[in-house]
Design a protein that fits this description.
Strand content: 5-15%
Number of strands: 10
Helix content: 40-55%
Distance between the termini: 81 Å
Number of helices: 17
Order of helices and strands: HHHHHEHHEEHHHHEEHEHHEEHHHEE
Length: 334
């Protein structure tokens, strides 16, 4: 639909200055929405006078001939449960190039209401106040589920495991469910199709160390710090900011969630890896156990560290820490 042409025809009969002010307020021509202050400075009038002119212009706009556009908007919102997050709705209706025009026409439409952003909700549009009550119930139910399970879910998983409870609130499908939970500021998609609480590291990582944690968790295996840096920089889940390899290495060294398991290779403590150098690992392997051969020790250590067997054998030669008995087996000396 050609919203640019429709907006132009709607404003065509207004006085030139009024037309220009509304166009600039909504970015209908230049693409950038302007403030009351900036427009007022341009015309040499106060921001309040600009607001008055804009308001007067809206009261004079003739809506005859564009009823089909409003019905299309209304039907679209109705199909999504009676409400939709503003930025998602604008993108859906206007694509990349006509979102400002869609916002302007939504503002004119009778029966559609904009709800401004607050502490708990993103800005959204609705045609049915009952939909707001339904959305709040769905959001509350989903928040409780996430808090109880303490794990992320895909949209499909989250919808299916709550399906029976959701149906008691409203006739529900996956699109309506998505419309409801996406207006909540407390529930978020991490960009990798995982939904959870906004406060969780898995959903809203803060800084390089959290991003490194998520990269390792997703890969499920130890990685070199250079590889971690590369994956952070190329991941679609994170902002495309340059990540310095040295910064990643420093964060991995300092954060207790990570363990150095080889030359430049890091793993997660939650995988069962314990901190310490190779000698510390050997000491833990031998602690409270009967004497073990060097090969038995090596097998145990290699479960914790990615090193050469000779590195393990060299550490066993430390006579201050280890004693080799007459059978050629080792025990802790201390």
């Amino acid at each position: 639909m050609d919203y640019i042409r429709i907006c132009s025809s709607v404003l065509n009969d207004l006085p030139s200055r009024t037309n220009n002010i509304i166009e600039r307020r909504f970015g209908l021509k230049e693409g950038k929405r302007e403030t009351l202050e900036s427009i007022g400075e341009n015309y040499g009038i106060t921001r309040e006078r600009v607001r008055q002119i804009e308001e007067e212009g809206f009261s004079k706009i003739q809506l005859k001939g564009i009823e089909k556009v409003f019905k299309y908007f209304s039907d679209k919102i109705e199909s999504l449960g009676g409400l939709k997050k503003e930025d998602v709705l604008l993108s859906s209706l206007g694509g990349e190039k006509q979102q400002n025009q869609v916002l302007f026409l939504l503002t004119l439409a009778n029966g559609l209401e904009k709800h401004s952003e607050d502490n708990d909700f993103h800005c959204f549009w609705t045609k049915d106040k009952k939909a707001i009550d339904s959305a709040k119930k769905v959001i509350s139910l989903t928040l409780n589920k996430l808090k109880k399970d303490k794990t992320t879910y895909t949209l499909d998983e989250l919808f299916n495991i709550q399906k029976s409870s959701l149906s008691k609130i409203r006739k529900m499908n996956k699109d309506i469910f998505q419309s409801y939970i996406e207006v909540s500021k407390n529930i978020q998609d991490n960009g990798d199709n995982q939904i959870g609480l906004n406060e969780w590291v898995e959903i809203n990582p803060k800084g390089v160390k959290d991003k490194a944690y998520l990269i390792l968790k997703k890969q499920g295996k130890p990685l070199h710090f250079r590889k971690v840096a590369d994956l952070i920089g190329s991941s679609s889940c994170f902002e495309k900011n340059r990540v310095h390899t040295a910064t990643v290495h420093n964060e991995l060294i300092k954060d207790p969630r990570f363990v150095l398991v080889g030359r430049g290779l890091y793993a997660l403590v939650e995988w069962g890896y314990e901190p310490g150098i190779v000698k510390d690992v050997i000491i833990k392997v031998l602690k409270g156990k009967k004497p073990l051969s060097k090969d038995e020790i090596a097998e145990k250590v290699l479960e914790q560290r990615i090193v050469k067997r000779n590195t393990i054998f060299l550490n066993l030669q430390d006579k201050n820490c280890f004693f080799k008995n007459s059978q050629g087996k080792y025990i802790n000396k201390k």
